[in-house]
Design a protein that fits this description.
three-stranded antiparallel sheet; alpha+beta; hypothetical protein PF0899 fold; 6 strands; 123 residues; binds zinc ion; metal-binding; single chain
Length: 123
Amino acid sequence: MHELSMAEGILKAVIEKSEDNNATEVIEVVVEIGKMVLINPEQIKFLLDVLSEDTIVKGAIFTIEEIPIEIDCPECEYKGKIDDDELDHYAPVVNCPKCGNKRLHITNGKDCIVKNIIIEQED
Ligand SMILES: [Zn+2]
């Protein structure tokens, strides 16, 4: 249950941050998910809705932004984006678009981070 543990982690971070800031309500949460994380954004949104039910985050809008994969190829020195639309969710293989090398440094698109939280505070 990759998605479930990820949704739980996101929610925990949001709750901690909201409590630190004396939030009375959480309006919106923006989450960045790299395509290399291989997660279904719709599923994450659904899980966040369900898991937030009895928390301060209940009713918040979850916005998921997908971050494209970027690589740095040590063979041909290609740096940049790759075609990640056809990425196999079960066995992701990333190739250098220039030389086909598979041993790449992935420089972007492998993280899942809570980018922004919009809260309502007590006056
Ligand atoms: Zn290359």
